[in-house]
Design a protein that fits this description.
Layout lengths: L2 E3 L2 H6 L4 E2 L5 E3 L1 H11 L4 H4 L1 H5 L10 H6 L1 H8 E3 L4 E11 L8 E14 L4 E12 L7 E10 L1
Parallel strand pairs: 1-4
Antiparallel strand pairs: 2-6, 3-6, 5-8, 6-7, 7-8
Length: 152
């Protein structure tokens, strides 16, 4: 279920709130190959299914940065900020990739609002820890502390 916020005060009051889970999404080989083309990262563990079968993961895996990038696919499912005139990605404080995502795996996101602070007269910086889960996995694929700025 999507959590909706409509003001800076609501964002600041959300600290500690759990969000999600999102719906499931598949990270398939086609998406992995497109990411390799976009970034120039053609390492065999990502793009060579035949060679990767005998590699350390038993098949191809998604790039860590691809897994990180799908956070933007999940965040609108987890939360919306309707009262803001604009929201922008400000950066990340910490990112980890505890487990690889094998091609064809289903992933989803959960999140926790870690902090919210004023950054100027009409903006709030929100820190949200997003955890990307792998269906059937015992470790997350990615844990990232995202920073977003919302302008009101």
């Amino acid at each position: 279920m999507t959590q909706a916020y409509s003001s800076a005060a609501e964002l600041k009051a959300a600290v500690g709130q759990q969000l999600g889970p999102s719906s499931w999404a598949v990270l398939d080989q086609v998406r992995i190959d497109h990411f390799a083309e976009a970034t120039g990262d053609h390492q065999w563990i990502h793009v060579d299914p035949e060679r990767a079968r005998s590699g350390p993961f038993g098949g191809t895996i998604a790039h860590g940065y691809l897994t990180l990038s799908v956070i933007n696919r999940f965040l609108p499912e987890l939360m919306t900020v309707s009262g803001a005139t604009m929201g922008v990605n400000y950066g990340l404080d910490k990112v980890r990739f505890p487990a690889p995502v094998r091609a064809g795996s289903r992933i989803r996101a959960r999140a926790e609002v870690l902090g919210a602070e004023d950054v100027g007269p009409s903006a709030v910086q929100l820190k949200v820890r997003v955890t990307i889960e792998i269906e059937g996995g015992d470790k997350p694929a990615c844990v990232a502390d995202t920073l977003s700025r919302f302008f009101f």
